[in-house]
C-alpha cells in the first residue's frame, strides 16, 4: 500500500527452486513467486527490491497498462518505487559453458571469414554473413 497505493489481493509465496531469477509474476493467476535463495543469501533488502519489481508487473497488468520489461509504463513505475531491474546472481550458480566445438569457414577466396559455434550448423542452409559464400564445417 505504501509504494503502490493499491492492495495486493492475490498470493505471494517463496519458491526454493528459483535459481536464475529473483521472482516471477503469473499473469493468469496474478500470483507471485519469490526466490527463497535470494532471501537466504542477500537478505530482506534485496528481496524487497525483487518484490517491488514483481508488484510493478502485478499492478500494471491489472490496470491494463504495459507490464512487460520493455514497456515504458513498467520502467517508469519501477524507477518510482525503487525496485531492482535485475536480481543479484547467486554465488554458487555456475553458468553452463559449452566449449567451442565447430568452426565455419567461408570458402570464397576473397572473404575467408571464420565463425565459431558451440552447436553444429547445417552448412547447406546457411551462407557467409559477409559475402553470401558457401561455408565449410570444421570440427575442432
Stretches where pLDDT is under 50 for at least 5 consecutive residues are: none
The proportion of residues in beta strands is 15-25%
Query: What is the chain-wise order of helices and strands?
Result: EEEHHHEEE
Helical proportion?
A: 25-40%
Question: Structural class of the helices, strands and pairings?
Answer: alpha+beta
- If you compute it from the alpha carbons, what radius of gyration comes out, rounded to the nearest whole angstrom? 23 Å
Number of strands: 6
Amino-to-carboxy terminus distance: 58 Å
Overall pLDDT metric: 91
As laid out across the biggest beta sheet, the strand order is 1-3-2
Number of helices: 3
Question: Quick summary of this structure?
Answer:
With 140 residues, the protein is of the alpha+beta class.
Can you characterise this structure?
By secondary structure, the protein is α+β, with helices and mostly antiparallel strands. Helices cover 26% and strands 18% of the residues. Helix 2 packs antiparallel against helix 3. The longest helix is centred in the middle third of the chain and has 19 residues. The N and C termini lie far apart (58 Å).
Question: Topology, please?
Answer:
Layout: E1 12-15, E2 23-25, E3 32-35, H1 36-42, H2 44-62, H3 72-81, E4 102-106, E5 114-117, E6 135-139
Parallel strand pairs: 1-3
Antiparallel strand pairs: 2-3, 4-5, 4-6
Helix pairs in contact: 2-3
